[in-house]
């Protein structure tokens, strides 16, 4: 019980920082979508998709590997940390050397021949992010959620402040002051300021890791390195396949959707902006993962934890379904997060959220192969899902556009989720009480259909009123089914 309370506490702190951080970061979405064009936002969407993929490659599974080996009996925690930190740092430096040696050809191949600086800046950002990923993992391992949360929020607060300055403050000032120095603000830089601000904020946050960076002097063990790589290479394949499930559509779209470069970027920008509203699911999943991963590996030496894993899955699914319905219920209000030019993409929101829920379920199912060191299975599942996603994109995007990107995510994550469950039950039998979970899923589907009808046929305020009643139905069932006992105890105190 004490360990579960610790999980709840850390989830609350990680979750609060993640939710507040994502909420504050949402301020940038209306800023960008109201201030820049749809094709410019398409550039942002495309480049950040590349960055997400590269981050997985440059960390090559070492976050999870660190937790596994630091908790293994007979391993030296400090040596594990130092060896991994050196490995990730060295890979990052080699990556940067390659990028800057061939910056011109790489920028042309990505379609940014006119702006090679964008590619160079994003390369430095992703190398720093990869190094920071291990530093943040160390904070989680040492159970320092407050510092973790503080640094995450520092980055976001600084980023928001500078973005407001460069997209609102300085443009207004330069309109009145003709003598404004170009080194301080140059309107021609435009969307480039998004990348330069990101670089500055990432570098600034790194300065607060002085104590953690000193751990790099804890030594380097080549035999340990080989064992780390044997464990992590399937995780790398898993991670690449997993992140491609999230980013392949945004990377492939400019190459497979017919139309002029400006139109293609505009369509990608609309899809990317609308998908931001659905990121509530990624927010919840990330918060859960930050607390749950070290908890699972830390308690893996204990017996009889299967019931705890089943409970973790149950409550994750229940509350993500609740969040799904809440977003749909108030979509008429949430749409103002993005500019009206992007509203035509709102139809992808429920589809993208469904895909994110499947991804979260798949993450919960993944621990059987991580705890048994059979990580190759993870690569197989994620690779199969990725192949399905890419195939759906290649076949259907040229005809149906970005709506096919959203459905491809459902197909990819759904495939990985189902395969992981079927194989996992043969290696680590866990009773997830599927019939009870299925009732929640079916109830959500019925309520979603009702909300869709309300949003389509009623005025915005009337629809939100009706949807609130439907959302209440889910909450009443949730309390009756899962919280009736605890609630009764509270009421009888």
Describe this structure in words.
It is a single chain. By secondary structure, the protein is mainly alpha-helical. It has one domain. The protein has 22 helices and no strands. It is globular, with a radius of gyration of 23 Å.
Number of strands: 0
User: Whole-Å distance between the termini?
Assistant: 21 Å
- Given the helix and strand composition, which structural class is it? mainly alpha
Q: How helix-rich are the residues, as a percent range?
A: over 70%
Major β-sheet profile: none
Fraction in beta strands: under 5%
Task: Output the radius of gyration.
Answer: 23 Å
What value does the average pLDDT take?
Answer: 84
The helix/strand order is HHHHHHHHHHHHHHHHHHHHHH
Count of spatially separate domains: 1
Q: Given the structure, what is the number of helices?
A: 22
Low-pLDDT residue intervals, each spanning 5 or more residues: none
Estimate the global geometry from the Cα principal axes: globular
Keywords:
493 residues, mainly alpha
Helices and strands, with pairings:
Blueprint: H1 2-26, H2 28-35, H3 38-59, H4 62-70, H5 77-101, H6 103-110, H7 116-141, H8 145-176, H9 192-206, H10 210-213, H11 222-256, H12 261-277, H13 280-298, H14 306-329, H15 331-334, H16 349-365, H17 367-371, H18 376-400, H19 402-427, H20 434-457, H21 460-482, H22 484-491
Helix pairs in contact: 1-8, 1-13, 2-8, 3-7, 3-11, 3-12, 4-5, 4-7, 4-11, 5-7, 5-11, 6-7, 7-9, 8-9, 11-18, 11-19, 13-14, 13-16, 14-16, 14-20, 14-21, 16-19, 18-19, 20-21
